[in-house]
Amino acid sequence: xxxxxxxxxxxxxxxxxxxxxxxxxxxxxxxxxxxxxxxxxxxxxxxxxxxxxxxxxxxxxxxxxxxxxxxxxxxxxxxxxxxxxxxxxxxxxxxxxxxxxxxxxxxxxxxxxxxxxxxxxxxxxxxxxxxxxxxxxxxxxxxxxxxxxxxxxxxxxxxxxxxxxxxxxxxxxxxxxxxxxxxxxxxxxxxxxxxxxxxxxxxxxxxxxxxxxxxxxxxxxxxxxxxxxxxxxxxxxxxxxxxxxxxxxxxxxxxxxxxxxxxxxxxxxxxxxxxxxxxxxxxxxxxxxxxxxxxxxxxxxxxxxxxxxxxxxxxxxxxxxxxxxxxxxxxxxxxxxxxxxxxxxxxxxxxxxxxxxxxxxxxxxxxxxxxxxxxxxxxxxxxxxxxxxxxxxxxxxxxxxxxxxxxxxxxxxxxxxxxxxxxxx
Length: 425
Ligand code: HAM
Hints:
The protein folds into two domains: 14-169 and 229-319, BirA Bifunctional Protein, domain 2, CATH 3.30.930; 332-419, 3-Layer(aba) Sandwich (Rossmann fold), CATH 3.40.50. The chain has helices at residues 14-33, 47-55, 59-64, 83-92, 138-154, 170-184, 193-201, 216-219, 230-245, 292-295, 310-319, 339-354, 368-377, 388-393, 414-421, and strands at 37-38, 44-46, 66-69, 75-78, 103-112, 124-133, 160-166, 251-252, 264-272, 282-288, 303-309, 332-336, 359-361, 382-386, 395-400, 405-410. The strands form three sheets. The chain has an eight-stranded mixed beta sheet with strand order 1-5-6-11-10-9-7-8, with helices on both faces. Strands 13-12-14-15-16 form a five-stranded mixed beta sheet, with helices on both faces. A three-stranded antiparallel beta sheet has the order 2-4-3. By secondary structure, the protein is α+β, with helices and mostly antiparallel strands.
């Protein structure tokens, strides 16, 4: 019986990894341009980190975590997201003591959620995320949003929508929470089971419930924007002004509450509006989380960040028919005729590789015709042909495949010749 990959996971094979690498390199270059530094945190953490960080009342913590006891009897969880771990690393390693502030961090990596798999929703998926710790400047909120958008734009995506909201500070949210409880309590029995418990634990989450979306009480629910206190309102205005001067357009949606408990003030999501993208349209989500460092035992530190799903990004590229400029052609393939030439081919590919030239040869014992076919299959730009005649003369035939030309080159000149032809490699 053969064994398959677990449900909700996929193998990413070479044709796809070429795209992943291109996407990652583009994003890395942008993260560097915005002056962010990479962090790599463990893939598993103490379960308590996510209970305290992401929040006990969230779907992620209640239903979706891969939690197990290790051999030492500790409760361990595969990370469902990157923010809690990044903030933990910031606190544990006292990055707040670094003279360079704020800490502008980014990460790539797999995340794990036990969700019902469907297109765009997996049990192991990959995120690129950034977290800025130590700044309360509304301009950094706009920078974070701007970086998220420029990742998509740099890859050619056009059908994007930025949705923005403010969840206000603790006081604003407390007042809003009370208003929501007052609003939804009379119709509690008509709400789904999840929302009935959300009403007590986290009434804001009722607003993004998929089941109760069309419930009449949803449409008449009070808006968070009417409950922002002066400070929160001013903060939100400043974030919007910064976005305006950067020429970034957005839609304010007071129902955008996000699925994690740590948010306050700015919350945002970027959606794909491409036709045929699929039912789940959110490409990235993020927001401000000023209390999180303290919740996990660190000093009071403001924070903001986002994460984007890389599978969804690739799906969006497909939906917009964007071909990434990936060069998968091989530089040089060496074809050998006869036993002596075969051994010499071993030396030549090795020499070429040591000189920085991408090269390959046959390892299947193919006849000459088969070797040419193999060179063709990997779209080799140059095919070197070597037989007894050439060996005696210490030359080699160099075929330029695109031009259809052939030249006999002295063996001693081969490397500089190819380096020049391949553009100074
Ligand atoms: P999130 O909204 O849970 O936020 O996830 C961010 C993105 O990860 C989603 O928009 C989506 O693209 C991708 N994603 C999430 N779950 C799945 C899944 N099951 N399958 C495929 N892709 C998925 C966070 O994770 C926060 N940590 C973001 C953040 C960073 N907030 C502040 N800083």
